[in-house]
Amino acid sequence: MSDAAAENVVLRVDDLQKSFGGLTATDHATFDVERGTITGLIGPNGAGKSTIFNLISGFYEPDGGTVEVNGTDVTGMEPYEVAERGLVRTFQTPRKLEGMTVREAMLVGPRNQPGESFVRLFTSPGAVAESESENLADAERILAEFEIDHLAEQPATDISGGQMKLVELARAMLAEPEVLLLDEPVAGVNPTLAKKLKSQIRRLNDRGTTFLLIEHDMEFVMDLADPIVVLDQGTVLTEGTPHSVRNDQRVIDAYLGGGA
Amino acid sequence: MSALDAPKAALAGLTRPEGWVLGVSVAFVLFLLAALLTGALGPTYFLFLVGLAGMYALLSFGLNAQWGFTGLINFSVAAFFGIGAYGSALMTASGSPIAGGFNPLVGLVVALVVAFALALLIGIPTLRLRADYLAIASLGLAEVVRLIVLNERWLTNGSAGVRGIPGFFEGWPVLSTFPEAMPGLRLEVVPGSPILLETAFWQASLNVLLVLGFAGATFFVLRRAHRSPWGRVLRTIRSDEDLARALGKNTYSFKMQSFVLGSLIMALAGVFYTHLNLYVGPGDLDPITTFYAWVAVILGGSGSNRGALFGGIVIVTIREGTRFLNDVALPIDPAPLRLLLIGVVIVAVMRYRPQGILPPQRELIWPSAVDGGGAPETPDSGVRERKGGGGDE
What we know:
CATH superfamily of the largest domain in chain A: P-loop containing nucleotide triphosphate hydrolases
CATH architecture of the largest domain in chain A: 3-Layer(aba) Sandwich
Number of domains of chain A: 2
Strand order of the largest sheet of chain A: 6-7-8-3-9-10
Order of helices and strands of chain B: HHHHHHHHHEEHHHHHHHHH
Oligomer: heterodimer
Strand content of chain B: under 5%
Largest interface: A-B, 48 and 42 residues
Structural class of chain B: mainly alpha
CATH class of the largest domain in chain A: Alpha Beta
CATH topology of the largest domain in chain A: Rossmann fold
Strand content of chain A: 15-25%
Shape of chain A: globular
Number of strands of chain B: 2
Radius of gyration of chain A: 19 Å
C-alpha cells in the first residue's frame, strides 16, 4: 500500500485472531478505517463485533495479528495507552457513575488533566484550577451543543438510557479522540433521541472525528455509515457501500442463518 | 472560614442529616463537659479518649481513601496499623529487641517506609486483577503480619510486646519537658468535686495535640484530593473501572496511589497509638481493628471524609462508653454487649440510611474552578453548591 493511502488510514486491523477456549471469536479479521469516515461494523449476533472492539481498544489481548492506530502498533497495549493515541470507545450498556452529577461525570472525559496527578494538587494548585475551569467550560459547551445542558445537575444515574448514551458520546468527545468506537449507540434508545444521536455523530464527523460503530439497527447504520464492514463468524465477510452490502447475497445468507 | 462569618446562613444551609449530626454532637459535647466538671470523667482519661477518637478517625480516613474513594476492599487495616505501631515502637523503645532508642521522628519515618513497601508488595500482584483478589490477599496479609509479630521474637519480643516506648515529643526542645514543667492545677467549678490537672494531664494534652495534627493534616490532604480531578478518577474507578480505562486513565496506577495513601494513613494511626499507649503487643493487630474501621466508614458514609471522622468518633464512643455500662448494673460483661451494639447500629444504618449518615456530596469539582475559592459546602454561593450539599434525596 502506498504511503499516501497508509496516511489516510487511522485504524488498521490486520489478521486479528482471538479465541476463548475452543471458540474462535475473531478469525483473521482484516479491515481499515479511513480518516474522516463513519465506518459501520455489522454482522449477525455472535459474529464477533464486540470482541473486535475489545481487541482494538486493548481490553482483550489478541492471540495474533496487529492493530495500528495512526500508524502506531498498539497491539497488546493497555486501554489507557490506546486511548492516549487517540482511540476512545464507548460501551454497549451505558456506564453509570454513582454519586456524580452529569456535569461531574463529563469532567472525567478530558485526558491528561494536571489535577489527575496527586502531587500536583499540592505543588501547583493554580495549574489544576486553571485546567479545571477550562474543562468545566468545555463540558458546559459540549452539553449545550448536545442540547442536554438541562441535565447538568441531574444525578448521572437518574437519566434515561437514551440520555445516558448522549452523555457518553459527549464525554467521549471531551477526550478529543481521533477515532471514536461506538458500541450500539442507539440500542434501546427512543426514535427521537436516536435521531438526535445520528445528527450529533454527523456533526462531529464533519468536524473531523472518525467513527467506527457497531449497530444492529440497519436503517440507522445504512443511513449513517459508509463504508460498512460485515462480520460473520469472526471474519470479515465483505465491505463496501451500504448499497453494495445490502445487495450482497452472502450478507443476506449470513443474516438469515444460512451462511458459511 | 465563611461559616464563622455567617453562622446563621451556614446553619440554614445544613441538610437534615447534617443538622442532626450537629445537634447530637453538641449534646454529646455538653454531656462530656458536664461529666468533666462534676468529676465523673477524669480529665486525663478524657484526653486519652480524644486521642483514641483521633486514632480511629485516622484509621477510617485511611480506609475511606481506599474503599470510599476507589472501592478497594482492604481487610488488613489492622496489619498496616500494626506496622505503624511496631515500626515506631521498635525504633524508639528502650525495650526494643533491635535498634531502639532513636528519636520518635525516625520511628515515624521508618514506620511509614515499611508500610509503603508492604502496600506496594501486596498491591503489585493484586491491583491488576479483579477487586476480589485484593480482598482475599489482604485478609491473608493481616494474619501473616500478626503471626510474624507474634512469633519472630528476635524482632518483636513476641507475645511479651514492646515496652519502654517514649512519648512522641521525647527529645524535642520545650515539648519534651513540657508536662513536668507545667504546674499542677486544681480547679473547682462544681463545689465539692475538684479537678486535678497534673503531669499526666499535660502529657495527655500533648498527645491530643499530636493526633489533632496528624488527623487535621490528613483531613486537609484527603479533602483536597477527594474533590480534585484525581479523586474524580478514583470515583470513576469505583463505579466502573472499564469506563475509566476506556477514557485513557491508567487505573492500575490510580488504584495503587489510593491504596498506598490509605495504608500510610493507617500506619500513621499506628505510630500515634504507640506513643499514646506506650506499649504495643501482638493483640493490637487483632482483626477487630479492621472491623471497627470498616464499621466507621460504612456508618459515616463511604467516600465521605467527614463521614469517616464521624464514624471514628462513634466507634470510640461505643467502645469506651460500654465500659460504663458495668456501673449501670447489667449482669453481663460489656465486651460482648459492645459488639452487639455495633451490630444493631450497623443494621439500623443499613436499613434506614444505606448510604451512611454523612454521605459524600454529589458534585465535587475543584472549588476555585467553580467560583474562585468558595468551598462547596457553604450553601450561600450558588445553586450548584446547594445541589451538591447533601445528596441524600
